[in-house]
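During the second half of the funding period, the structural biology subgroup turned its attention to how the target accommodates small molecules. The most pressing case was aspartic acid, which had performed well in the primary screen but for which no bound structure existed. We therefore specified the complex as follows and requested a full 3D prediction, including the ligand pose.
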Amino acid sequence: MALIVQKFGGTSLADPERIRRAASRVQKAVQQGNQVVVVVSAMGHTTDRLLAQAEELCERPSARELDMLLVTGEQVAASLFAIALQAHDVPSVSLTGALAGIRTEADHGNAQICKIDPARIHAELQQGKVAIVTGFQGVTEQGDPTTLGRGGSDTSAVALAAALGAELCEICTDVDGVYTADPREVPSAQKIEFLTYDEMMEMAVLGAVVLHPRAVETAKLHRVPVIVRSSFHDGHGTQIGMEPKRLQSVSEGV
Ligand code: ASP
Ligand code: MG
């Protein structure tokens, strides 16, 4: 039995039907005998909408109140995800960053994770449940909610995979994997099968939005194997890790 983390981005959760589809992916992974921790982003453009509402009321809202506001986006997605799984008799529970034991510094809006206590998640898994964790957020020592910066739920997923000793962190998104260039702009762009952490880092820093740079950094530090794949079909996506064994064995054989 493997423990895996599956993260779903906002586009993959934009409406109840998409949440249902994402949940059926998780159900499949459970039926294959895996323990699954799901990390969710907020649905669709929720985060942008919440920010716009705050800015309608105040030109410069305080960072602490913005965090209090923004964490609700992921909480809606997490609870709906749990409800979708329960509708198919898959035992599940949604957890906020605080409940999931994700402690951060108090730097509101751009907080760094300082430690994760995975006891609650392990306890839920032990009881046969899927744990659905809100991405992009944690809690300060005082108990205030924090967010990790835009795109931060990738980092939540990888950091949780590291803390749980997960076998794999799957980033399920609206593209098939990492491409040599943006396939919407460059028709000849090709999907990449394998990238080392450093190669992925270079691409993320250059603006490949598919994976947040801090998530890549965290994956490299803890050697978490990552796969970026579509949440809509079964294509095998792009693997990110240490040197690819496949290539080594090919050259050894020459
Ligand atoms: N919901 C947050 C954002 O839109 C975090 C994320 O999606 O990773 O930036
Ligand atoms: Mg993202």
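Two results from this model are relevant to the next phase. The two ends are 36 Å apart (CA to CA). Helices lie at 16-31, 46-57, 63-87, 119-126, 153-164, 197-205, 213-222, 245-253.
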